[in-house]
Amino acid sequence: MTTTGVKRVLSIQSHVVHGYVGNKVATFPLQLLGFDVDPLNSVQFSNHTGYNCFKGPISTEKELANIFEGLEENKLLGHYSHLLTGYIGNPLFLRQVGEILRRIRIANPDLIYVCDPVMGDNGSMYVPKELLPVYRDEIIPLADIVTPNQYEVELLTGKEVRSEAAVWEAMDWFHERKIKTVVISSSDLGQPGILRAFLSQINGPRLAIDIPKQGDKDLFFTGTGDLFASLFLAHSHASGDVTEAFEKTIATLQAVIRRTVEQMPRQRSSGPVQAWERELKLIQSKSEIEHPKVVLKAQRLN
Ligand SMILES: Nc1ncnc2c1ncn2[C@@H]1O[C@H](COP(=O)(O)OP(=O)(O)O)[C@@H](O)[C@H]1O
Ligand SMILES: Cc1ncc(COP(=O)(O)O)c(C=O)c1O
């Protein structure tokens, strides 16, 4: 089956009952941007792992193989234009994703694999450390597009990334593994109040966007990386122009975060912001997902 003109994503990520991370944050934007989404849940948690506690099952590789068998026996694999993977909580499940990818690529050699190697943020891992070698040695080399954050780049390359020169060196680490497009969704390179996002393409542009940090200094958001990956998948498919895809992705993220900050139930002075108060105002941002207004432009660096 040919997937020319088909927009259908198999999205293997977390499901949370409350809040917006993983498949809960990726599905709505992809659907609004015209994609059929087939969510396959790697875990089913009560809420994301940044709350005081989280409960719920982590899927096993056997459960994944079983669901996949159903798709395969019904000859549905050729229907996918994209595979998107995010939060996965078990190394054997992740290894099974590699096997699934090989089988979907047999059915559709044009499949685009977008890998968000979700492992942690700000210097700490929130998945078992055994996932790192599986991502690094088995899964990342199979990807077309990767969207790590700064910390995940450091884990994968085994090198500190604290300067722009180090960013480009890290980009080459990915390109040497034949990954065409690498997007570092955010980095803190020491410029106060600024997050810098980077994009590099083999035989293509090297881009950076400076993002003024929204919210108080120590306020942070969860699900933004997952939202980034889903939006970038959609916009890069819609436009052959990777600069436009990068700018639109950041534009929507900024609008969602702005609304989230503005609609926080109470002011920062009344104690630390609770995890539920920081949940992204995703549904309320429908219009900015459909029609991103680009304010922050990309700088071309090559
Ligand atoms: N405090 C913030 N202010 C403005 N933008 C932010 C902020 N936090 C995250 N973002 C947006 O979210 C995107 C994803 O970044 P980030 O959340 O750091 O990724 P990850 O969740 O993978 O660590 C960034 O490109 C940026 O557009
Ligand atoms: C269950 C789950 N999925 C996904 C994520 C990834 O979130 P982010 O998009 O902020 O990287 C997290 C982070 O805490 C999580 O707990």
Report on the architecture of this protein.
There is one protein chain. The protein is of the alpha/beta class and 302 residues long. It has one domain: UDP-N-acetylmuramoyl-L-alanine:D-glutamate ligase. The strands form 2 sheets. The chain has a 9-stranded mixed beta sheet, with helices on both faces. Strands 5-6 form a two-stranded antiparallel sheet. Strand 3, helix 3 and strand 4 form a beta-alpha-beta unit. Helix 1 packs parallel to helix 7, helix 2 runs parallel beside helix 3 and helix 7 packs antiparallel against helix 8. It is globular, with a radius of gyration of 18 Å. The model has no long low-confidence stretch (mean pLDDT 95). The chain binds adenosine-5'-diphosphate and pyridoxal-5'-phosphate. The site of pyridoxal-5'-phosphate has 16 residues, from strand 1 and helix 7.
Overall average residue pLDDT: 95
What is the CATH third-level topology name? UDP-N-acetylmuramoyl-L-alanine:D-glutamate ligase
Main sheet? Answer: 9 strands, mixed
Strand tally, please?
11
Annotate the secondary structure layout.
Elements: E1 8-16, H1 22-32, E2 36-45, H2 61-73, E3 82-85, H3 91-107, E4 112-115, E5 120-121, E6 124-125, H4 131-139, E7 145-146, H5 150-157, H6 164-176, E8 181-184, E9 194-201, E10 206-212, H7 224-238, H8 242-262, H9 286-290, E11 299-300
Pyridoxal-5'-phosphate is lined by residues 14, 16, 21-22, 45, 48-50, 87, 118, 126, 222-226.
Keywords: ATP-binding, Kinase, Nucleotide-binding, Transferase
Catalytic activity: pyridoxine + ATP = pyridoxine 5'-phosphate + ADP + H(+); pyridoxal + ATP = pyridoxal 5'-phosphate + ADP + H(+); pyridoxamine + ATP = pyridoxamine 5'-phosphate + ADP + H(+)
Family: Belongs to the pyridoxine kinase family.
